[in-house]
Amino acid sequence: MRIVVQRVSSASVSIAGETVGSIGKGFLLLVGITHTDTKQEAEYMAKKVAQMRIFSDAEGKMNLSLADLAASGGLSGAGILSISQFTLYGDCRHGNRPSFVNAARPEQAEPLYDRFNTLLRERYGMSVQTGRFGADMQVSLVNDGPVTILLDND
Asked: Are 36 and 20 in contact (CB under 8 A)?
């Protein structure tokens, strides 16, 4: 699994001009799944995202997680916007057109993506919005910081 985590002030996703997901302060996640990923990777990555400390504390240090902010009442309308993105496994080492052979097929990737989001909601108590798996989506965001972290379990 490969996840781009962006700390955002706001983010939204639209399909055919209709907004299907929107958050205030929180995380925009771009989630890629490869053919060797299993439920264990989904569990590991959900825990990693839920416990990531990339929000500033009173001293301005990145020391607080999304859960910490929510518990302190500092996140009205906050949450996670999770977007499936097979192109994170695009390989451009040979030629100029990316190969996506390392991206999992939809029948494998979609259940793992759903499991990852369910874990964030149910095990970690996160408010999670999503796009639509396999759809042509338009994602808008205001990156806060900017802070962008790449999580990769490979």
From this structure: no
